[in-house]
Specification:
5 helices, 14 strands, 20% helix, 8-stranded antiparallel beta sheet, globular, 2 domains
Length: 358
Amino acid sequence: MILKILILIALAVIIGLIKNYYIIIGSVISVTLFLILKKYKYTLVLILIIIFGISILTSTLVSEITKIQLLPFAPLEEKKEIYPIYKGNPDGEYYRFNNKNPNDLKQIDEIKHKEIFSERNSDGSWKVGKGTTRIDISTKQAGILTQEKMMKQIETWNFSILDKQGYWLYPSDFKNIEVTVIFKMLEAEKIDQAISLVSRSILHDSKGEEEIKEYPNAFCGGSSYHNNISTDGKLQMKKEQYHADYVIDKPNEKIKLGNLYNKKIGFKAIVYNFDNNSKVKLESLVDTKNEGKGPYVKVHEKIDDGKWGINSGKAKMDECGAMDKGATISWGSPKMILKTNNLDFDLYDIEVREIIPP
């Protein structure tokens, strides 16, 4: 009886420390059979089972400690909570990365772009090849609408009307959001190549492009905020007034994250309205020490109070009907975009959730 109790205690400790389902399954099988099959005629069976169980346990322990996958199949996954910063809006839209099927054809459709989610790595992450990568993540209500269908549904391209309306497509559009991406930046053409989290835009076509000829003002759909993080650890904010006209802040020189190449990190872009929707705050947070598990540290922020670009003479939001040249982008969008240029990276997780602004 004492032996049985000790074995069960040891099993509980292993489960509590490791939390790997293969260890749990292997241990339960081994312990159960060890307690049942104690007769001599079952000795050979018991020896084979113990060898099999030890093999599973050893392989899994090695994988847990060294991150080298020895098992011929991927480990069973736990859907772990993303470390939150702000309180979620229980009625808001939500997206969580589907690690088994990233192109779920519900909120993501990148089937045509072969470099995106090209291969699953042994650690469960997905390869995203270099090139002009744009991963569109849609709200559940919008789904994977084609651009043509989306343009037909948009009632106005006028920024003044959008400011009052509050959204591009639906009241449920992503607006006040906390976006979390866990990834590893790999090969890049330049040392300052960045990953950009783009919010509040609807499409990105320039004035006069053939694709939007029936909607000549659709270039205004590129209005967006960009939270950027580069391979050399620099943080930067951009305001795209329309496609493609930017007001860009220089990278914050006070931030010294160091080289992030080949390092699994977590990056958060938080964008929300405040002061009765008259101002927008952008926050960038990182976890470079605990592989995105948290806690996250705020390293950069920017407030758009309607003056961004005024002093430099680059503000021109009025070209899309805004009352002021420096008008804020206060409305929501049915999608957000993970954007890179000429950068390979491995993607582990993404979460987009509506928050209650602080």
